[in-house]
Amino acid sequence: MEEGQSAQARLDMVVRIIANSMVAEVCSIYLRRTSEELELFATQGLKAEAVHKTRMRLSEGLVGEVARAGAPLNIMDALSHPSFSYRPETGEDPYKSFLGVPLLRGGRTIGVLVVQNMAARKYEDEEVEDLQIIAMVLAEIVTAGDLVGIEELKDIELAPTRPERLKGSVFADGISLGVVVLHEVPVTPEHLLSEDSAAEEIRLLTAIDALRDQIDQMFEGQHGLAGPTFDVLETYRMFAHDRNWVRNLTEAVKSGLTAEAAVERVRNEQRARLNNARDAYMRERLHDMEDLANRLLRVLAGKNTARRLIPDNSILVARDLGPADLLEYDREKLKGILLEEGSSSNHAAIVARALQIPCVGRLQNLRDRVSQGDAVIVDGETGEAYLRPRPDIIEAATARMDVRAQRRAEFTKIKDTAAVTKDGHRITLLMNAGLEFDIEIMNETGAEGIGLFRTEFQFMVSEDLPRLKRQTELYERIMDGAGDRPVTFRTLDLGGDKILPYMEMEREENPALGWRAIRMGLDRPALLRMQIRALLTAARGRELRIMFPMVASIDEFRQARDMVDIECSWARRRGRPLPSLLRVGAMIECPSLLWHLDALLPLVDFASVGTNDLTQYLFAADRTNPRMNDRYDPLSPPMLRALASIQKAAEESGTPVSVCGEIAGRPLEAFVLVALGFNRLSMPPAGLGQVKRMILSCDREAAGRAITKMMGSSNGSLRNEILSLARKLNVDL
Fold first, then answer.
1. For the chain (length 733 residues), average pLDDT per consecutive 10?
2. pLDDT tens, residue by residue, 401-448
3. Neighbours of 532 (CB within 10 A)
4. Is residue 622 helix, strand or coil?
5. CA-to-CA distance for 252 and 245, rounded, in angstroms?
6. Cα gap 681→610, rounded to integer Å
7. Is residue 674 within 8 Å of 428, Cβ to Cβ?
8. Among 89, 324, 449, 511, fewest CB within 10 Å belongs to which?
9. Catalytic status, residue 27
């Protein structure tokens, strides 16, 4: 390659050397064109005039079969194989045995390397292994432009280049245009071939040991890697100790690759193999193995997971994210998020909404379709992602962003205006929060307080269990920042899909219905009492509002309330100041309470409806399951009847009640809540402006009468009818 020959001469030399080394009568290289065709670029043994003339589609021939599967194909009698495609110009009639391996780059097939022999034979495993190593090296030097000329490279599909539109689901509203930043982007090997295999093997095994120690420390909460869920960490640990994985890596090193190249090669093979798996579990394991490989590459490179530098207008692309992962990035530069998986109720989505960063999820095979630095549009209005968008799409998105900016300016004008309906009903608008910087957002949006402060976020982004002092300091800062505006602190809502890496949890078949929230607090009273003590201390003589989540029975609330009384007595005996006014409430999110409100409401100082979980349990539909996420509409007769019964019972008992679920921040759903009689709504910050604008244009009494009649409908959803009603009443949605 260094002899200054033409690109074709170098290719011819490569296939000649491979044929001689493999004792093969034919060796051919096919590269993938942007036209999605595989073109014969060089051959030893087939007719020379077929070079650059023979092309076949990815769905055609044995070469196409290798490219499609991304895996080796080893056949004794190629001519009798159903996928064989006869090309007379190549003169391959005499050659029976066939071995083809893919040239993989980032798990994507960019070409195929083939050897053939006249005698019918099955190539040995060692020969397949040898050819795969050669293919890996070829893929790297083709991509680098060292083997094929730069002009030729223009038409070779090394990475996705065409515009694409992917349809997913909205996790956080908004539109943004920026460049792709891959979460935990792999460290690219600088050297592929080693000079000392024994030394490389020692490097590799040392790095694997370091990786295992790192993962073990993550389990113990002693390492500065916050945020991965327990399941991911458990999978890391399992795979990091997997003998087959380590054996594959060491064998690749012994064959002459560097440790980094060995990791890349094994990862590419696993990715190509599992990408075609129909089983969702197997595809999930692929992502786990990729994450593990990336971490091992960083260990080999001597890199840690410190806060990453990102360019302006960054769009973060990942399989899924924990809240701590997201907080590692500069919020001023992070303009959007695209995820392959997740749900609108997962942690990253909640944090994205708090930060007002557009987020779209459930974008299938997203990471295989983008490269670092690609231009991309996140459309958090329609749930779409535009990869490498055309100029007209960019222009349209920019225009929509301008419209949204104008709308935000309008919301800013009314942020200090009281939310009063046209017929004179005052609605209190609060915001959901969970992080310290939410106080800044509260001031920007004009929220009248915090109706739901998720205290578990402090635990989820921490390296270890926050002790009394750290909890107290956070709650003090939140109350100081809120001033005279009310803050309702929800006690820890852990369990289910919110698992702490430093807290040992049993695996549950049905975590959403299992040991979580108040159930965990009552079974671990020290944990709950420490949090209550921190809240009482932080109040420093001010009003304090404490709310218990996931209450399913009256006894559970009584036990939790008793813990508050115990802590108050403890503080009183020691002469410590108590809140000037202590209010203790419960969340209504378990359907069991719908038929026991007459017993619950006299016991609580206030109640709040958690519509996210209430909808989940009412319809027995896991809200984190993509197949269930949009199956049932909260604007349905059963849900509206449930909400109406809660509001009526609260009104009759004189108990203040609010709604703090996600639907409170959507104008159409908030219109229904106001019509049903709710006077307090707590929502993500992004919803405040549009919900207030809706309220100012709403006639509550007229809307209430119409919606009450609709609830007798047999329809599964009332969304269209309610939308028509809103338009008829000139409600500004």
1. 67 89 92 84 92 88 89 90 88 90 78 93 88 83 62 58 86 91 66 82 88 68 38 59 85 87 80 58 58 77 64 89 68 90 72 84 82 90 91 89 85 90 95 83 88 86 78 93 94 70 62 82 91 95 95 96 96 93 96 95 96 90 73 91 96 95 92 96 90 95 94 92 95 91
2. 888 888 888 888 898 899 999 999 999 999 998 877 788 888 888 899
3. 24
4. coil
5. 11
6. 11
7. no
8. 89
9. no
Q: Which residues contact 425 (CB under 8 A, 6 or more apart)?
A: 674, 679, 700
Q: In this structure, which amino acid lies at residue 532?
A: I
Q: Which residues contact 660 (CB under 8 A, 6 or more apart)?
A: 430, 432, 451, 452, 587, 608, 609, 610, 611, 682, 683
Identify the DSSP state of 716.
S
Instruction: Give the whole-angstrom CA distance, residue 495 versus residue 499.
Output: 6
Catalytic residue among 347, 359, 590, 698: 347
Q: Are strands 55-57 and 26-32 parallel, antiparallel or unpaired?
A: unpaired
Task: Give the amino acid at 634.
Answer: P
> How far apart, in Å, do the first and last CA atoms of the chain sit?
65
* 3 state DSSP class of 105: strand
Instruction: Single out the residue of 118, 178, 199 nearest to residue 315, CA to CA.
Output: 178
In single-letter form, the type of residue at position 641 comes to: R
Per residue in 321-358, pLDDT tens? 765 566 668 888 999 999 988 777 666 777 787 778 99
d(CA 115, CA 45): 10
Determine contact, residues 70/273, Cβ cutoff 8 Å: yes
Owner of token pair 């209450």: 551
User: 351-404: per-residue pLDDT in tens?
Assistant: 787 778 999 998 987 877 788 889 999 999 889 999 999 888 899 889 888 888
Q: CA 128 to CA 330: how far, in whole Å?
A: 46
Query: Residue 388 is encoded by which pair of tokens?
Result: 């490498």
Active site residue 347: yes
**Active-site entry in 359, 590, 660, 698:** 660
The Cα–Cα gap between 431 and 444 comes to 12
Q: Is the whole-model pTM more than 0.70?
A: no
Say if CB 530 and CB 570 are below 8 A apart: no
Assess contact for 162 and 25: CB atoms under 8 A: no
